[in-house]
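On clarity, I found the account of how folds are encoded harder to follow than it need be. For illustration, here is how one protein appears when written out as sequence plus structure tokens:

:::
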Amino acid sequence: MSAYLFVHFKEKRTPDGEQVYFGISRDGFHWETVNDGNPILWSYEGDKGVRDFTITRTKEGKFIILATDLSLAYGMPYQYEDSWEKVSRNGSKCLVMWQSDNLIHWSRQKMLPLGDENFGCLWAPDIIYDREQEDYVIHWSSSHACNSFGPKAIFYTRTRDFEHFTKPAELYRKEDGGTVIDSAMYEEDGIYYCFLKSEGIPSHVILVKSEHVTGPFTRVEAFDKCMENLESGKYEAPTAFVTADGRWCLLLDFYGCGAEGQGYVPFLADSLKSGKFIRSDASFSFPYGFKHGTVLPITNEEYDRLKGYHKLPSER
């Protein structure tokens, strides 16, 4: 793979912001828009808005996008009465899925009710292939009845075909009982590393690791030291990828300012094992404020196909 796709949304207080946008890059450092910066896909079901995307390429070559079913533009002032507590308890009962064979033509939107009556919200899904069991693990953050819908934890389900899913189970919960959300997991040298947004102590992104996709996990303390100098409570939605020169690039979503100034901040490391990431703002450029998404390596042919993609406003 020699290029990159970024699936994301925009931080706007209008419904067009909470839809599916694509960005592309030859090198992972300098990004450009797809479809003139307009949405690639729109959500017409559930909250009629989607956030917090992940994308994966399956072993069969199919592309899967999963997202949180949530529209703050539509729902926050009305349906949820400007209450994040009501959003996390009563909103986002399904994950949203699209599938494609070529990144251009996508299936109709599908709603996945992966939880049950014990789940509040289902937020920020991520997908990783489990080499041990030869299936896919979908993990996300939820409030849950087990602690009276208090601090959130990470839950997961397994699937081989993205049509049949196992009963959800808990993947990771902070020992101090604080909230964790926005899980993003990667494999390096047979070890699975998972970035998480931690709320409370500490109030920043953390990194845990395990020999197995579903744990048990231990903290990577070297990464904690890298995050110590960042302002607390202003970074979330980690996504990572390997650059052309073999380094890891971690992108953190900075939301500690007005909507117009929000976007991703880059950090570089020689390996996940080291946990030592160095902030590298000067190396990166974005055409606008990217919000909570995932980077996927793509081929040059796929890059060219997306670069030339234009969708009429009347097309669904």
